[in-house]
Amino acid sequence: MSRRGTRETVESRCETGDAHARTRSDSAGIVSARPDWRTVIAERRRQTQLPRLPLKGSIDLTYRCDNHCRHCWLWLAENAPEQRDELSTDEWREVIDQARALGTREWAISGGEPMLRPDFAEIFDYVTAKATTYSLNSNGTLITPEVAQLLRRKGSKMIAVYGATAAVYDEVTRNPGGFEALMEGFARLKEAGAGFTVQLIPMKGNWHEWAAMQDLARSLSKHWRVGAPWLYMSACAGEARNAEIAAQRLDPADAVALDEPDLSGDEPAAALAPPVADAARLRYALTEAFPRLRETRATNPEYLRRCAVCFLKGLCEQCPAKSWAESGTLDAPVEYLCEVAHEQARDLGLLERGESARLVTDRKARVERI
Hints:
Blueprint: H1 3-16, E1 23-25, H2 37-48, E2 56-60, H3 89-102, E3 106-110, H4 120-128, E4 133-138, H5 145-150, E5 156-161, H6 166-173, H7 178-192, E6 197-200, H8 210-220, E7 223-226, H9 239-248, H10 252-258, E8 269-272, H11 282-294, H12 301-305, H13 320-327, H14 335-348, H15 363-369
Parallel strand pairs: 2-3, 2-8, 3-4, 4-5, 5-6, 6-7
Antiparallel strand pairs: 1-7
Helix pairs in contact: 1-2, 3-4, 10-14
């Protein structure tokens, strides 16, 4: 990235929102050029004057998974009793119909492992048949020949890889035979002619074979990407799981080496996750409850003292949801994400080693300098 591009990124991220994992395409060899930051900001301001429509929807069909990954913040066992709280096929149809009526045209389908549901194919077909596009996140271990044929439908299929070898993959996922099942899934997708993107998930448990994971990704597809190089905590799973997740987090310097800011300026998504006690209340949630939630303001003194005055907000991944997962409050600083943002600032030349961003008084001059 050029120095000018770096400056544009730092400034415009304050206006354009969260970063996304960097997408790589070996056939192209480069990351897409960033738009001019003034154009991005002007467009985002123009969008705020338009009617707010949930153009994108994200649905987690289940939180159950056949893997039991050491870094996962929402895992439930395949036969978990919470299964009874999941929406039925008809209830999912009702939710999808209501969202379509409100304007949703693009879908992100995930879990847990969505293919654990016996009605996955039916729901997938219903969701994507009238969508302009979709994305699907899966661990790839449950892909049957029939599902592979269904996944020929144009869209983004992201298949997660947690290791370059069976030993590491199965250790991370605690699923003996999982790596072999994943490779079989890739083979079935290729045989069906269904395109896919390999999504590499970095953590301490596989960091020692990261180069080999990249080689594996290249051998499987010309399209591959790196998942978020930080890991989410769980707001409800207890201290033991969060300690295990924390143990898998990369050193901030390694995380920064894998990630860069993004000016994509994506529209906010409508997050629809089970259980939904009353699907008929979707319109109320989107048109009344969510807008009121946007008016919520931080009151935590520690957040106001540190985060609210920090000029690295455009680089930091802290948000109310991540604060809730880490601390059970919406406005608590997330120490690990703060460390990552400071490391990225040092990498960009915005901070010296040992400096705290909230204490910097010449922030504008520093951005101009780089």
